[in-house]
């Protein structure tokens, strides 16, 4: 092979010829415009551009941000996902001039994993923490109500009468109107979703927002004046209580009901001398957050204690806990 031919072959191996479709002139590979006529030159199919493709910076950033999302509460992962998608589109449309397709796909996968999986793991824990705080707020409300009820007993010689949902009178609502509470906050469980419209529709009332705020209490529904039915539903009238309590005694054998009237150990606030461990109210709205699996309610007693009671196994009528002597007068 002659020297000139060898040089020509080396030149062709180094530079693939690109042809101008308009004038037919040869142009070196990579040229975007024809050196003769200036017309744009389209790449020849099947021939990649010369040299090594440049790695997409956005693909690299996508992977890095996806990893950082696990340490910076997920915000970088959102940006990483967007960059990964954009970079993958650019790489696919670059005709080989851009590399890093694997990095872009990895960035998309890592970012998506955080966005989809990590919240599913964390959200239940956050919900439990929020409900624990609400349960603690409910306990604080119940403690406040216990103090107010005892103050009312000292001033009035008895406990608040049963609650009337039609008029808003009686029950724990009288503690606010009587000045025993500084505001209505203690009357409302944080987990109670009842609205004014819902209350009016349920009870046939026509209260306004002020009346609802002053008269409604989450705890009036379980206020223990005449005792409870076997499932824990408060009894509304004395006539309802007598059949259930007429033959009941406490652990010391003392009758809870005698001659048509509650005795001094009757576990209800109709008894002005009710024992200190008599239930005032209970709140069932936190049952699902307790770990036992059974229904457990937060129970407030006259002594101010708030404890969970296994509602399904508890003797709501007899209330075995009233085996202590009544308060001294």
Describe the structure.
By secondary structure, this protein is mostly helical. It has a domain at 224-329. 38% of the residues lie in helices and 9% in strands. It is built from eight helices and nine strands. It has helices at 3-14, 57-68, 75-92, 101-156, 173-177, 196-203, 209-215, 238-245, and strands spanning 17-19, 26-28, 54-55, 98-99, 257-258, 261-262, 279-283, 296-301, 306-310. Strands 7-8-9 form a three-stranded antiparallel β-sheet, covered by helices on one side. Strand 5 (257-258) and strand 6 (261-262) form a beta hairpin. Helix 2 packs antiparallel against helix 3 (75-92), helix 2 packs parallel to helix 4 and helix 3 (75-92) runs antiparallel to helix 4. The longest helix is centred in the middle third of the chain and has 56 residues, at 101-156. Residues 6-15 and 323-329 have low confidence and may be disordered.
Write a brief structural summary:
The chain has 329 residues and is mainly alpha-helical.
Which features does this protein show?
mainly alpha, two-stranded antiparallel sheet, disordered C terminus, 3-stranded antiparallel β-sheet, 329 residues, 8 helices, single chain
Described by the principal axes of the CA atoms, the overall outline is: rod-shaped
Major sheet: order of its strands?
Answer: 7-8-9
By oligomeric state, this entry counts as: single chain
User: With helices defined by DSSP (H or I, 4 residues minimum), what is the helix count?
Assistant: 8
List the uncertain runs: 6-15, 323-329
Order of helices and strands: HEEEHHEHHHHHEEEEE
The class by helix and strand makeup works out as mainly alpha
Give the strand tally. 9
Strand content: 5-15%
Radius of gyration: 39 Å
* Main β sheet profile: 3 strands, antiparallel
State the helical fraction.
25-40%
The whole-number mean of residue pLDDT values reads 81
Terminal Cα span: 127 Å
